[in-house]
Batch of 3 targets.
Target 1
Amino acid sequence: MIYGISLVFLSIVAVPSLILSKKPNAKELLEKIEPYQGWIGLIFCIWGIWGIISAVLNIGWLTTAPIWWVTFLAGSLVEAVLGFMLGYGMINKLFLSKNAEAKEKAEQLRGKIAPKQGKFGILGIIVGIWMIVASFLFI
């Protein structure tokens, strides 16, 4: 359930224009979070990658809880992608600044997925809500 809640939170941070069109008073909260967006993205990217690794290590769940395993893997993938998009500046500063080749590849990857950030954010909200519901149904 914590993965679902965190994914919904991350998705809300990733699609501020969608939130602001629905609730104008949310702008103040989003402005408070903005300076920490890089760190939030970095942490969630690492957490999403860890979720993907956990899903692969627990592939045996496919026989006992296949819907939960697929949900967990999908949520972790979306979390890693959104975390990468939000934390790209911090990831670049901390990890990629010394390796020009890795920096170039990361920039190409970001260029491909950045235009889809809003769609990933909406997908993240949907998958996050499903993860919360699925945690009650299948665990």
Target 2
Amino acid sequence: MSVPAPEAPPGQPQKAATAAWIGSALEYYDFFIYGSAAALIFPKVFFDESDPATATLLSLATFGVAYAARPVGALFLGHFGDRVGRKKIMVFTLILMGVSTFLIGCLPTRAQVGGLAPVLLVACRVLQGISAAGEQASANSMTLEHAPPHRRGFFTSFTLSGTQGGQLLATLVFIPVAALPEDQLLSWGWRVPFWMSIAVAVVGYVIRRKLTETPAFAAQQATGEVVRLPLAVLLREHWADVLRVIAAALVASVSTIFTVWALAYATSDSVGMSRSSMLWVSALANAVALAAIPLWATLSDRVGRRPVFLIGAAGSAVTMFLYLWAISTGSYPLVLVLGIVTFGVVYSAANGVWPSFYGEMFTTRVRLSGMAIGTQIGFAVAGFAVTFAAQIAGPDGDDWFSVALFTAALCVPPVIAAFTARETAKVPTERLGERDAPEAPQRETVTA
């Protein structure tokens, strides 16, 4: 049985949630500006020797490279997060992301150094992926273990609200950049958002160094319960939950298709929408998501994680058909409304609840490893979903129906995973991950 953890000091749950929000926003600002650049800029800067369709395919493949690196990063960062604590990993990942993103803005183009340019781009993207592998898992573990037992869904959702905030900020930064004249955009304009990321390392360090370690992890350290090989314990005692998280994490394909492939499709010659108008769709959808995520998470504290997650996964499979159809019509008002509904409202149900849903499957001893490894393998598939979508869309890149069908198929494993998972919303924090833990004890009175 897990060691009972003392209550968090007054105000600490709020501090942990705020640090998770700000840190994730800064971290994922870096991560998502790459997505916009991969769809709009990099085909002309790093892959300009190819025809436009091939250049776009190669550029989107570099977007997926980070997702391939994330499972490797998850193995190492998950291990050390469960060995030395959540706080150290949160600081390390933020600094690594800031530095690697800044370096992307300094890279020479293919016209300047030839084939070395895309190689350097991929190397920096790998570092971004390693950083992202530990960011969400460490921030989620930190907030979950600090949160009052009956509000874990709400507090852990701050990590994903921060992710959406970072995506919103990245989109807003790219709107004026994308409006620059073509020659300025391709020479120096695209570099500015990447250079701005150097502030990530400074701000992230200041914010996160003041956090205290979680009561649950501190209790394990005090009693010698910290395991030497978290991965071995994870695979021995929680292998089914790891597989369940991998399957559930495929729902992230909705996000990558929405933010990257749909953007490239809408601005292609076959549709002809402007870069700025489509970036505004993404910005407004993310703004709505900022409000929707904590609301869905709060609902999950009342009715459970599984029903809310199922709404997001199954609903996204349907609404992505409507969104991509709207793009094919070229009707901007229709694209705007359905973009907000798809990504801002429906997908936010799954996005807002998964931090608590996944984290509650594991004990404190292996929580960070379980979340990191499970999510990052699933996210790796989601990252390359963009590349597969570009191939599925055909030589002209306009077969939106096949892409929508592909996205819906990727939502099936998350639905199955949710149906087979235990409901954990009302389980006491110290009993999470135990096979004999009660599923619905009386609500505990805890002062946040």
Target 3
Amino acid sequence: MESWLFLGVILLIAFIAKNQSLLIATIAVLVLKLIPHSDKFLALLNKQGIKWGVTLISATILVPIATGDIVLKDLLNTLKSPLGWVATICGVLVAVLSSKGVGLINQSPEVTVALVFGTIMGVVFLKGVAAGPVIAAGITYCIMQVIQVVTNH
């Protein structure tokens, strides 16, 4: 019963904040909960959802290349500007942070609660996008590594 209430509160917050992505995601999870014996699918979604989401996002990013809207010349031109270099470096950093974040989530699943809460707060109150839990986990991992180094000396 508590999960229904919690999801209902998130649904209400998403509605008030007019956040369509969070609204759709919450409704989808609520509908899945209504389906008898959906526990196995919810567990599968919990375990594989990030991989599926990353795959979908990756496919979306590749579409302009597939349609010819972005060609190799565009990449080479972009790398001639500071913005292109900064974007490339940030892309590398996000990929590394995400890998560390996935590792942290696998190692300490309890951190997911705080990550989800923080993501919802950022989406609702700061007009963020809910694509960041894995990156947030990566940042958390890095901060924890720094704290560990500092406290061990």
